[in-house]
Request: fold
Amino acid sequence: MKRLGKKWLINGWWSVIMLLLAALVAIMAWLYFHDNRVSPWLQMLTLTTFVVLVWGVCGDLTNIFSLRKQENGITWCQILILFAFILWIIGFIWIFEIHKSSSSTIVFGVIGGLMTIVFQEKLKGVVTFIHLRTHHLLNIGDWIQVPKYNVDGTVRKITLTTVTIYNWDTTTSNIPISALHADHFINLQNMAVGKTYGWRIDKTFIVDTECFHTISKQEADMLKSEEFNKQHDILDYLPEEEIKEGALNARLYRLYLYHWLMSQPDVSQLPRLVVKWINQVIEGMQMHMYVFIITNDLDDFEWHQSVIVEHVIESLGWFGLRLYQRPSSYGKVTKEA
Reply:
């Protein structure tokens, strides 16, 4: 913590020095621009130096504000960099009196075309930065996912052109900020800090349809037997009147799993708790489970998610069902052995 504070102090003094230098250069530039004896190239050099200093100061301040998670400071620094660049372009046109040229329209067209080609990604980045900051869609410390770039972690730094993310696997990703506008990204921060109903489990299990059947009287008696329920407690979550001869085992299992999830203290019934059969595929029938775990801790969520998935796998067999698995050589080798 002391090292971090010392680093901020050093960066702060360096920024003050850079600002003073920038102000000095600005004064010199003002004098140069009002003296026709000064070479345009010298004026351009002075302006370029000023812009570079502003860029350096604002870049340094952006790092400090990123560490402190001061979003407004980051935004203003990046806007100053943008204005400095625009000032350089205007100064270039004014110093060399391009606007007075008879062919100024053609010159402006050529310059505009070249800038569009060379700075295309930069311009996209500026538009994206303004969009994200205006609508508060991205902040320092947010947990985001960008599937296209295999990014999953917390935002460490935001600039006009790039976003730096510290991934959960301890790697660091640096992606163009324009990707957050052109491509799909997910901001999970509200869920992470507990501002939603919990963390979502959205899973689909493919059940082998060869196992679907109406249960016999013997199977119904087994499911309702005292010995069987001492081991699995099915009757605690499935009404006994539903277990009868002729009932579809897949329906009984769906009802059982739904009520079992409802009884779990770590499962939220809001905004929705869904267990349903969806479109059949070649491999079998898909069972979709959509629930929310009441937690804002990643480790806790992963633990409860694993427990639920393991229970789904285990309880399928109680109703004579099984998950689909692509045929392999395992069964053949076992039989031959």
